[in-house]
């Protein structure tokens, strides 16, 4: 029996409304952090799908203060949502990849914003002991979520996309956050180069076994200027059809834990840099298709979740 009502999965929107008593909107910010997969620490060029904006196309201008970025985006959101509550979202780059003094300053600036929480996007290989201690401190002060990009649990895929770390290294970072009771969100991407449907479902099963606080499911976007654009134009990379993507996401939702929050079911592509798939621009249609497919299956998040998957 569907425990979620009409939506058929545990959405972040519903969880935040329950936590804070009203709608909560995340405001993307750009603190100007780099990535170890770009500066040579683990690799050069970044992941094969990642743009020069380091996944921060909709974040602010790093030359402006975080407060100014926040207020600019807040003004835009007021037209859409009206007065609501906000979470500051350090989105662009790897936002634990710096010295602790710099991180402390940036996080303190975020805590000074009129926001009820803080989300920090980063990589699992950017979580040294000093950083973890700082995150634990921040976790005591606000509603903190740390977002870790996994993308795929398949190490062959990780090599193809130039991820720069293995699944075992991801697990080490993930577990270090869980040990400190820090809410952790895992990002995965459907449609990566060389991956089959079975590979994507295997990643979902591996994530299910971790029972994360939150998961974000993204669609592989081919972005101008990336290695994956070259692969797409040469025919090496095939993008998923809308119908394939919807079906895969519904399969993944069925095997995820019922208590894991669903932070995202598709990605937001920048119309100016998106090469393919163009159908992804109509986000409302994709989400509506997922809801329709779940309804037609008479299914919902966690329907096929098996506790035997669990490692913790």
Observed structural traits:
seven-stranded parallel beta sheet; globular; two-stranded antiparallel ribbon; disordered C terminus; 10 helices; alpha/beta; 38% helix
Description:
The chain is an alpha/beta fold and 312 residues long. It is built from 10 helices and 9 strands. Strands 1-2-3-4-5-6-8 form a 7-stranded parallel β-sheet, with helices on both faces. The radius of gyration is 19 Å and the shape is globular.
Q: Biggest sheet, strands in spatial order? A: 1-2-3-4-5-6-8
Mean pLDDT: 92
Helical/strand content category = alpha/beta
Number of helices, counting only DSSP H or I runs of 4 residues or more? 10
- Portion of residues within helices: 25-40%
Please give the largest β-sheet. Answer: 7 strands, parallel
Radius of gyration: 19 Å
N-to-C SSE string, H for helix and E for strand: HEHEHEHEHHEHEEHHEEH
Strand content: 15-25%
How would you sum up the global shape?
Answer: globular
CA-to-CA gap between the ends? 26 Å
Query: Count the strands?
Result: 9
Topology diagram in text:
Blueprint: H1 12-20, E1 24-29, H2 66-81, E2 85-90, H3 100-111, E3 117-122, H4 129-139, E4 143-151, H5 155-160, H6 167-178, E5 183-190, H7 197-210, E6 214-219, E7 222-223, H8 227-234, H9 242-255, E8 261-264, E9 274-276, H10 283-297
Parallel strand pairs: 1-2, 2-3, 3-4, 4-5, 5-6, 6-8
Antiparallel strand pairs: 7-9
Helix pairs in contact: 3-4, 7-9, 9-10
